[in-house]
UniProtKB/TrEMBL annotation, chain A:
CDD domains: TPP_PYR_PFOR_IOR-alpha_like. GO terms for molecular function: oxidoreductase activity. Keywords: Oxidoreductase. PANTHER family: 2-OXOGLUTARATE SYNTHASE SUBUNIT KORA, PYRUVATE-FLAVODOXIN OXIDOREDUCTASE-RELATED. SUPFAM superfamilies: Thiamin diphosphate-binding fold (THDP-binding), TK C-terminal domain-like. One of its GO terms (biological process) is response to oxidative stress. InterPro entries: PFOR_II, Pyruvate:ferred/Flavod_OxRd, Pyrv_Fd/Flavodoxin_OxRdtase_N, THDP-binding, Transketo_C/PFOR_II. Residues 20-255 form the Pyruvate flavodoxin/ferredoxin oxidoreductase pyrimidine binding domain. This is 2-oxoglutarate ferredoxin oxidoreductase alpha subunit. It comes from Pseudodesulfovibrio indicus. Pfam families: PFOR_II, POR_N. Gene3D superfamilies: 3.40.50.920, 3.40.50.970. It comes from the Bacteria. Residues 281-374 form the Pyruvate:ferredoxin oxidoreductase core domain.
Automatic annotation (TrEMBL), chain B:
PANTHER family: 2-OXOGLUTARATE OXIDOREDUCTASE SUBUNIT KORB-RELATED (PTHR48084), 2-OXOGLUTARATE SYNTHASE SUBUNIT KORB (PTHR48084:SF1). It holds the Pfam family TPP_enzyme_C. Signal peptide: none annotated. GO terms for biological process: cellular respiration; small molecule metabolic process. This is 2-oxoacid:ferredoxin oxidoreductase subunit beta. Residues 65-203 form the Thiamine pyrophosphate enzyme TPP-binding domain. SUPFAM superfamilies: Thiamin diphosphate-binding fold (THDP-binding). Gene3D superfamilies: 3.40.50.970. It comes from Pseudodesulfovibrio indicus. Keywords: Oxidoreductase. InterPro entries: 2-oxoacid:Fd_oxidoreductase, THDP-binding, TPP_enzyme_TPP-bd. GO terms for molecular function: oxidoreductase activity, acting on the aldehyde or oxo group of donors, iron-sulfur protein as acceptor; thiamine pyrophosphate binding.
Length: 381, 283
């Protein structure tokens, strides 16, 4: 086995790690509009991308335009991304739905801040969890990932690009201010140590190509605009050729396929870390920076003789149901701490269906959830 | 030797058997604008694969379905932002943003200003029919003061927007206005606009008798075309007209014609400089 090259270590901010991850994944386009606590992602992109061969950075006039530009760039064959926070995320929703419908790969990072509205601009919060799931209109699948430390910011950004390209869909990376603004030592993986997935491009002659045709994975190949495959892209419900349709059987075919291409690959998409969950009686389910507090609380609880465990969600949607169900076989209590009024505990309760008792810990005061708060609830059993 | 007719040219660019019949009302001016666009592209000799038509939402936005280019039907008002992403990603492409007046001036007004300011190399083609056609005849920013619409049953109070002045002020490289009645002139400016670097804008005045005319004393398409004929005057003539004669007249022609490099040219020049410095060992 060849000796592994030593990895570069850097001391980085969460937002900086996102940029590193994106560039490693092959991102060559950033279009955005500044808003705290996400701005560093944009600022670092502004200094890095123009110096790269083929890198494009553009500051757009608002978040709606940013999404438009990102989708345009992706249609042109680039790996493209944007980043924002709360109010900007709301503005991106209409075009996010467009990206789902037109099956356009892209990564949208939302560093959550306290809301509603302009709310608590730079305080930690996890208030956009359900907005990420249901913010745009209509029924649609969506992939939402998160990260709980700086290394994960890098890793999950790569994962986000890979999933976007693999499944031809927008992927949202939901971060919170604590993770984004924490500075930690991280390792930059070497080339070859991680997967880089790029969308499949058609190999058939242009006359044969049908842009929205069924395939084995449900994901049609996607050529860059201007490469000789001329077709129509639209947000309207369309047939296999990409043209608008209202015929019920064609509508259903499209809707089924865009759902199925995600459903079929739950095992690949639903990522979690399972920490002492094998025998746990009390299981904490957490994500983002709260998962760090939870991990410490679980260790302390074990020290106190309580069989506690942590299911750390790295994929928020589609909700990792099968990982939770496994735990429900032996856990009598689930504890869901979050920096919102209970946006993820809804999902947990939905999957739990009365098996265990679900306790929630909710903070909306712009303060972090501490290990001792979680420990207290764990100790109540 | 037979001469190639205008129709034969157009037929080469339509998506036959795929999306016909079309959705437009008989007598609508939108088809005429599409015809001039096709003939302009043809006369410039641009291959179909190098043309991207990025359309907004409205009757005008639907035009993209029928032409055999790369076509993107976007969200309402956002065509220019998609077009910007496409052009900067691949500057070799000829990107044409096709929008309605509601699309471009109301919901998309901000993008229009900034596309012009940025001078991105996109041709913005605004089909101005003074009304929201597709949604059933509500007033648009271009609805003339005093006219009646579904949302102005007592007459439009706001004054009508001057697209040309807006685009000029925002910094567009090329700004022109034409009408579907003066079709040869329209084709000429469209050809110029597509051939220019940087951001160019063509406002094409096109009648919507179904939604606008019906409520405003132009009962038939013919009335509407007569209205265009009597209202529009070439800019050169307009400039010589006394102030009081200018009222109710609309100048057509080329208003701005500059030659500044587009955003994409400036961006890639900057990038080339960085890459050269890096090759020399600088940082
Ligand atoms: C965000 C959003 N708001 C409103 C609409 C509804 N809508 C569809 S077309 C249209 C207006 C079209 O008018 P215009 O742009 O003037 O084009 P025309 O149909 O007259 O060619 C509106 C308001 C929409 N599709 N999306
Ligand atoms: S409603 Fe007006 S703009 Fe729309 S197709 Fe009919 S005439 Fe044309």
């Amino acid at each position: 086995m060849p000796r592994r090259k030593k990895r570069t270590e850097i001391f980085a901010l969460g937002n900086e790690a996102v940029v590193e991850g994106a560039l490693l994944a092959g991102c060559t386009f950033y279009g955005g509009y500044p808003i705290t606590p996400s701005s560093e992602i944009m600022e670092i992109m502004a200094s890095r991308l123009p110096k790269l061969e083929n890198g494009v950075f553009i500051q757009m006039e608002d978040e709606i335009a940013s999404m438009g530009a990102v989708i345009g760039a992706s249609l042109s064959g680039r790996k493209a991304m944007t980043a924002t926070s709360g109010p900007g995320f709301s503005l991106m929703q209409e075009n996010l739905g467009y990206a789902v419908m037109a099956e356009t790969p892209m990564v949208l990072v939302n560093v959550m801040r306290g809301g509603p509205s302009t709310g608590l601009p730079t305080s930690p919060a996890q208030g956009d969890v359900q907005q990420a799931r249901w913010g745009t209109h209509g029924d649609h699948p969506i992939i939402v990932l998160s990260a709980s430390n700086v290394q994960e910011c890098l890793d999950m950004t790569i994962t986000a690009f890979n999933m976007a390209e693999k499944y031809r869909t927008p992927v949202i990376l939901l971060l919170d201010e604590v993770t984004s603004h924490t500075r930690e030592k991280i390792e930059i993986p070497n080339e070859g140590e991680f997967e880089v997935f790029s969308r499949t491009v058609p190999s058939m002659p242009p006359e044969w190509y049908k842009p929205y045709e069924e395939t084995v994975r449900g994901v049609p190949p996607m050529p860059p605009i201007g490469s000789g495959y001329r077709f129509h892209v639209t947000g309207l419900t369309h047939d296999r050729n990409g043209f608008p349709t209202q015929r019920p059987e064609e509508v259903v075919e499209l809707m089924d396929r865009i759902h199925r291409k995600i459903d079929q690959f739950f095992y690949d998409i639903q990522l979690v870390d399972e920490i002492m969950t094998d025998d746990c009686e009390v299981c904490v389910i957490a994500y983002g920076s709260v998962a760090r507090s939870a991990e410490l609380a679980v260790q302390q609880a074990r020290g106190n003789g309580v069989k506690a465990g942590l299911l750390k969600l790295k994929t928020l949607f589609p909700y990792p149901r099968r990982h939770t169900e496994k735990i429900l076989a032996h856990a009598r209590t689930l504890v869901v701490p979050e920096m919102n009024m209970g946006q993820m505990s809804r999902e947990v309760k939905r999957v739990n269906m009365g098996h265990a008792s679900v306790r929630t810990i909710n903070r909306v005061d712009g303060q972090i959830v501490t290990p001792s708060e979680i420990l207290k609830v764990i100790m109540q059993g | 030797m037979s001469k190639i007719t205008g129709n034969e040219i157009i037929h080469q660019y339509l998506r036959h058997n795929k999306k016909f019949p079309h959705v437009l009302c008989a007598g609508c001016g939108h088809g005429i604008v599409l015809g001039t666009l096709i003939r302009s592209i043809h006369s410039l000799g641009i291959p179909k694969d190098d043309v991207v038509v990025v359309a907004g939402i409205g009757c005008s936005g639907r035009l993209a379905v029928y032409v055999d280019f790369n076509t993107v039907h976007t969200t309402h008002g956002r065509a220019l932002s998609f077009a910007t992403g496409i052009k900067i990603s691949n500057p070799k492409l000829n990107v044409i943003a096709l929008m309605g007046d509601g699309d471009a001036l109301s919901i998309g007004g901000n993008h229009l200003i900034h596309a012009a300011r940025r001078n991105i190399g996109v041709t913005a083609l605004i089909l101005n029919n003074n009304i929201y056609g597709m949604t059933g005849g509500q007033s648009s920013p271009a609805t003339p003061e005093g006219s009646t619409t579904m949302t102005n049953p007592y007459g439009q109070l706001d004054s009508s927007f001057d697209t040309v002045e807006l685009a000029r002020g925002a910094g567009a490289n090329y700004v022109a206005r034409g009408t579907v009645f003066h079709v040869n002139r329209l084709e000429k400016i469209m050809t110029e606009a597509i051939g220019r670097p940087g951001f160019s804008l063509v406002e094409a005045i096109t009648p919507c008798h179904t939604q606008f005319g019906r409520k405003n004393k132009y009962k038939s398409p013919v009335d509407m075309y007569n209205w265009l004929k009597s209202t529009a005057v070439p800019l050169e003539r307009y400039n010589e007209m006394p102030e009081d004669k200018r009222r109710d007249r609309m100048p057509i022609g080329v208003f701005v014609d500059r030659d500044r490099p587009g955003f994409e040219e400036r961006y890639y020049a900057m990038q080339q400089n960085f890459l050269k410095q890096a090759a020399k060992g600088g940082k």
